[in-house]
Structure formats: structure tokens, C-alpha cells
Site-specific DNA-methyltransferase (Candidatus Viridilinea halotolerans), 1011 residues
Amino acid sequence: MASNVTKLRNLLAELFMFEFADLDFGIYRIMNSKRTEIQRFLDEDLLPQVQAELGNVKSGERTGLEAELTQALQQAKELGADPEQLPKVKVLRERLLVTYNPSTLEDEVFSQLATFFRRYYKDGDYLALRRYKKDVYALPYEGEEVKLHWANADQYYIKSSEHFRDYVFKLPDGRRVHFKLSEADSEENNNKATNGKDRRFVLWDGGTAGRGDGGMAGQGDGGTAGRGVMQEVDGELVIHFAYRPNEEKQATLNRAAAAKILELAGVEFTAWLEGLQTKAPTEKDAGRTLLEKHLGDYAARHSFDYFIHKDLRGFLRRELDFFIKSEVMLLDDIEEDSAPRVEQYLAKVRAMRRIAHKVIDMLAQLEEFQKKLWLKKKFVVATNYCVTLDRVPEELYAAIAANEAQREEWVRLFAIDEIVNTTASPNYSAPLTVDFLKANPFLVLDTQFFTPDFKTRLLASFDDLDAQLDGLLIHSDNFQALNLLQERYRGQVQCIFIDPPYNIGEDQFPYKDNYKHSSWLAMMNSAVVFSRNLLCEEGSFYCCIDDSEIAGLRMCLDGKFGVDQFLASIIWQKVFAPKPAAKTYSTSHDYLLTYAKDIEKWHRRLLPRTSAQDVLYTNPDNDPRGSWASDNLLRNEHRDNGVYSIVSSTGKVWTPRNGTSWRHPEDEMQRLISSNQIWFGPDGNSKPRRKKFLSEVQQGLVPETLWEYEDVGHTQDAKRAIIACFGSDVFPTPKPAKLIERACRISCEFNNLILDFFAGSGTTAHAVINLNREDGGQRKYILVEMGTYFNTVLKPRILKVIYSKDWKDGKPVSRAGSSHLLKYIRLESYEDALNNLDMQRSEFQAQLLADEPELREDYMLRYMLDTESRGSASLLNIDAFANPFAYTLKIANGSVGETRTTSVDLVETFNYLLGLRVRQIDTIRGTVVVKGLNPEGQRVLIIWRDVAQLPNEELDTFFQKQGYTTRDHEFDLIYVNGDNNLENLRRDDETWKVRLTEEEFKRLMFDVRDV
């Protein structure tokens, strides 16, 4: 059995991720680079401090007993007796067993430290499992009226962008190997581990579920095995995997999978064998192959780093004190023990706290470092625009007509090759003609297909760029996107509509252990806080949900918006027929939880009346006041002033029956009769009824909380809309556009901004475009989506809807489109930030740490990661700003195993950091000039230059030549990258200020706060 110090060492190795020595991505690569140093520090510097601390304890009791025992043994020896048989010797030995022993006490300290850290740590995360007593946990409570708590409440949900994404890596010869999860297992992938088994990645076995053989069965017929597990598709080797419960360790399954893949490659895919067997050695495994390396990375990316703790140091220190008080410091024993024994207790506590605090500091350094990477505002790594041709200057048409990539895109999206045999406009041809472009003004140009010079000329043609934008699409984790949007859109969004994953069935996302609902709430919590900041004071928030998470979500939203801001729990009838296969109830509805930013300022709009409602109003007597409908004049209760007789023009008398009365007093009734507002039927003899004129009726309907599918659509309508656009069912769980249209009608004016940060297939943009087409409005949208269908479904759908309002089988029915300009950007991901870290330690630093042990301890515990990662591209390399157009990051290129060196868009990133409302972007002889307004209303000029190409003297000339200080163009703030002398050009009567872009960029990028 391992000793307690060994158990603690093993646990610390787990806490500091030593077991993942073969992984060379993200935080694992960083920790592996420091593994030997950290291990040496723990073993040689830290743990020996326990013995040193306990060595200071003096036990007078034990010293006296040992002296007494020595004397008794000597006396027995002198008497010639067997000392071990003497009663006094036996008593003394028994007493010594229960008195202080340094080695025993040291062992207890190691044991209790291991117990403490093991309690709160599980597979990379720290969970709040404070024990009040055995199997009973204590929750933090600060006197709230209602307390919502969940296991991950104090953590950020991180692991989002890489779940179940395909994984691609390149062999040395450049060919690609593609790990792909089998779609046949997709339903099974959504089931949590069963019978105590965790889910593992295994080679796909052709669909056989629940096997215990590592997924290697079903491969006994030679060639069929290779075709089932492995395929060569378009020059790429595709290897299929499943994700299912399995008792084996992932490392064991990886070894089995590697052996099977190489076996198959040796038989059926021999051209791939050499590349797969390329060595990728590690310190622990000199024989590791490239295949084994990527199998390890692939499985690990789906298994670790789901959460980052918001305050790990504070959390663990509080829990340590609680642990010591409840499980180490036994007060009853202390009261009854002698002073030396109490001193031993205190020594043990001091040793525990000293070592635990240092371990906590080191763990907190790692957690805070990851938190810094998570919270820092992310770089924009790609910016492009989509614009209808009616907004593009005609001088650019020749370049557009000659662009083959754009033509092919239009054929694929809009079927323009079918525009033939029309007399009104030119036929399609390849290449395109300028006349064809002029005849099709709603073709949507995408700048990704054009040169930087073309893009520059296009953007320069817009006088007020941001004002002309109709939409913004962001390819990113929603937390990161909302973080970057804070300054630019704070208080400007009128309506938020989101449709998050329901956490059940196809929508269920991966989660750890038994924290299905807790993980989901952690994922929702932070994004909701960020999004609330973007709402204007009159704004409202809609969230679709079903029964699986509505209880927790309601309490979460109550906590973020306030209970008093709750508007309604709307019921949406999502299906039109019951499901015969339902095991319990056939679910017919979902919910929309709705909140106001400030319910006192929120204003609900009326829904438009329908033709079915207006048809009830007619005009049988040709009343000049227009159409009317009749209404009952009687109330079902007796009132003295309502009991009298009415005489019609034909002389017929009408009197209320017993227990009823007229709704109006007699004098008012006579006035209504005289003004022809009482209807006695076409012959004058019918029961009298009150005329209600359509012109007097409220021109709209008060929204109700039951939304029926006849009015807002159902799930099949949503599916049909997708199929109409694409010709096939390319997205699993869309919402009908009419559902979102209704929310917008209730909560928005014609020119408001709508945000959806779970954009999915892009239904919110579809709904906004529909509404604008219908009433000529200028509503705008922001959509955030991180999934791969951003490029395959969301963006193509929006472009299709812009181009034509009618679609069938993936083809436009008409080509009646809308004038439109949208921007789409992609952000650096958290994984990208991790993978672009570069740890550097100078020779001087290394020597200083070697010479100063006390400094080394403090450095290792608190400063190492921050200090040595400075200058990493993802943490802002200020030196690289000398040429801002050459700033690059390695960005995951659609699959987690392959990265591409990508130019960062520092210009666009800085615009968002400033919260700039961009008016114009222009490029003048290689220098980018941005003009706009910041959130304070100050006029801002930003000059981006390659310092080597435009040094300070030439910058001064450039600045004066452009006339940036003239009265007509004077700015309040001017930002320039690189040291400069522009301040010297300012006259005494001018007030503009110059700021260094680098300093402001860094301040704003890391100006983060916990949420």
C-alpha cells in the first residue's frame, strides 16, 4: 500500500497535469514544459517543509516517558530480568504509542492534505463540495430571500467550441488524416454514461452500441473492416470514431485504436502507413508515433478543461479553514488533552496550512492564468462584408464580373446559371458581364473572394459605414463575442431573442460526471450577464426553453434581471399533432421566458389585427362612419339604473328580463339611439345591440401568453423553411421565423437592434429581414454562432434570404431581394489563445532564481506563468505593433488538429475595444485611417502605419497633408501606433490629443472583470 506522502505526491502530479505529459496543445503544452521544474520544486522544496515545521514541536511528555522507559530497561537488565515482561515497561510502551511521534504526525499531515485536495478536485475542475458532515454538504448563503445554487456556480463554462468537432492533422508529406465521429452514433452520443461507465472515444464498430471490447468488434471479414472504420475520400484518410460508455481507460483504448488503425493501414491503406508511423517522441515515450500523439490529443480535447474557477485561491482557502475546523481540530480532544498534545495539534494545523496555502497559491496561479486568457477580449482574426450590388459603385463591376470564385458562389447559392431566355435582362454567362450585374442588383457580393485593394476601395465608398450596416455576424463562442461587443453596443440593443440548447435529446451538450443541469446553468449564467449590459433601458429579453431546464433557468434569470423585471412565461404551441410514440405525455409546447431591462420603461407594442378579425366588421346599413360589428347591450346582473324599456323605430318594446339590466343608463341609451349607434336588425324588430365601429377599435391586439402555431408557426414550418432554402434538412432544430417576428413586433420599433447569441441556423436574421420587407423598417441584427454551420448554414441562409424572398428546393422562386449590407467577423478562440502562448525565461532570470531560493519559491508559486508568457502573440506582443499588418496568430482552421498562420485584424479589434462607431475606413498609400465616434461622443481618428514605411518625419508630413487639424476635420482624440511627434504639431488654439495605440489597446484588451 502506498504511503500517505506518496499518495499526496501522486495527487499533486494529477493537480498539475503531469499525467498528460504526451499532450502538446494548450495549457498541457505549457505545463509539460515546466513539468520537471515543478516536480522538483514540489519534491525538494515544498513537501520537506512539513518535516521542518513539525520538527519545531517539543514534547516534554514524550521526552519524560522515553527517559523513564530507559531507566526501567536498565533496572531490568541489572536485575537480570526480561524487561519486556515487566508491567512498568509495558505501560510505558503503551503510553509512548499514543504520544507525539514526529513521523506519525507528518504522515497524518500528508494524509489530511491528500484528503482535502482530493475532495474538491475532479478531472481538472474544482467543485464546491463543502462537507457539513458525512454525505451532507453546506452551501454558501448570505441572507438572500431565495438562493439559487448549483455545483458550478462559481465557475466559467469553457469547453464549448471543440466538442465533437472533427479533428484533422497533416502527415509530413502534407496529406490530411481526418478523425470523424460516426453520425450513426449521434443519438447515442447524447446519452450520459450508464452503469457507472464514463464515455470514451473508441473506433467505430459500424453502429453496435454498448460493446465492452473497445469498439473493435464487427471487423472479421477482411476488406469490410477497413471500409467501415477507415476510408480514403478525396485524397484524405477518414477514420471513424464513436463516443460511448466504456470501462477501459482512454489511454488503453487509444493504444488499441492505434494498433488496429496501423493493422488496417498495413493491409488496405499501405500508402498511409509510413506517415502514420512517423515518430513523435516524448520524454516518457520515445517510441510514440504521430498517430498515437493525435489520438491522445483528440480524446483529451473532449475530456478536459470544461470550467475555470472564478476565485480558486479564495475558494480553496475558505474550504481549507472549514476542513481543518470540522475534521482536523477536534475540540473535545483538545479540551481533555495536556498542553504538549495541544501543541502537537497546533503544529499539525500550522504545517497543513503552510503547505496547503502554497499548493493553493500554485494552483491558483495556473487557474488565474487560464482565467486571464478566458476573460481577455479576443482578437478579430477575419473581417469581411457581404453587400448587395445596388450599394456597390459601378466602377467596381468589371472586377466583380471577372471574379470566378464569386461567380461560382452565386451559382451555388442563387442558381444564377438558370437566368436565361429573358427579354428584360441579360442572360447568364461565364464569365459574367457588367450588364448582367446591373440587371441583378440583389446579388450579394462577398469580400472574401476579392483582393485587399478591392475591399479597401469598396469600404472607402461608404460615408457612414456602421450606420449603413444592416447586420453583424460573429463566428465565436458567445461569451467571447459578447465580451468584445460591450463598449460598442452597450445599452443599444432593443430585443434579445435566444434559443439555447435545451440540454435534452439532440440539443444536449457534453457535461462532466452528474452535472448535467449545473453545467448548463454555468454556460447560460455568464452570457446572460454580458447580454443584459447590451440592452437599452426599454429593452426586453426572450429565451426559448422546454421543461428540462425551465425551473433552473427561471431562477437564474430572476437573479440576473431581477424578479420584478419578469414579464411573462409564454407558451408556444410547437406541434400540430400529438406523438403516438410518447411514453408519458405528448409534449406540444415550449416556453419563452421574457424579461424587461426596466419594466417601468418597457413598452409593449400591439400585434397587428388579422383579416380574419377585421372580416367580422361589416356595414349593412351603409353607415357613413364605416364598418362595424354589433355588441351585446345586456349585463347579467340587476342594476336599478339599467332597468327600463327601449322602443325601436317600429314600435317594438324591449325590457331586460329579471336579473339583468342594460349596460347604459337610460339617458345615455337614448343618446346612442338618436346617433344611430344602436342596431335593431335590418327590419327594426331585432333585439337591440350596440354598434362598435372598426375605426374606433384599438388598432392592434394586446399580446397574450399563448402563442398558437397557426399564428407563429410550428417545428415543421421551421424545417420546411430550411428545406426550401437548401433543398435538404441541413439543420436539426430550427425555430420558425414567425415566432421571432412576433417577439420583435411586440418589443421593437422599425429601426431597433435585435441580438441573438445562440444564432443556430440564422432564423433571427431571417425574421428581421422579413419584417423589414413587410413594413419598410430598418431593423438591424447581431448574430453570434460558434458551430461549423456558421459557414454551411447560417451565413448562406441569410444571403439567400437577402437575394430572394421566396425559395423552393434550394432554388429562388423569384429574385425579389432586399438592399443589404452585413459584416461578418471571426474571433480568436480560447483554444487559439492557449495555443499561441510562448514561454520564455532569460539566462539572467534563470541564474537569479538559482541563486535565490526564497525568491524562487515566490516566483514558482505566484509569478512564473504571467512573467514567462509576456510577449506571446495571444497576450499582445506590443513590439509587433511596429508593423500592425503583419501581426499573426496560429488559428485552428475549422478542425482542432490543424492550424494556419493568420493575420490578425488589429484595426477591427481596436475599433471594438474603443466602442467606435465607424464612419469611414480608408487606406492611403498603405496607411489605414479610421474615423468615427467613441461612446462619449468624441470624434476619433486612428492612424495605422508600418513604422518602417512611414517613420515619424514622414508621418508628420502625411498628417498635415491630409488636413486632420483643420477646423472642418478636427478630431478630439487621435491614436497612432508607435512613438510619434504629432503632439508637436498642435497649435495653442487646438485641443486634440494624441494617444499611443499600443497602450490603449493593452489597457482595453485586459480591462476585464468577473461575471
Observations:
- The CA atoms of residues 371 and 736 lie 38 Å apart.
- Residues 611-696 form one domain.
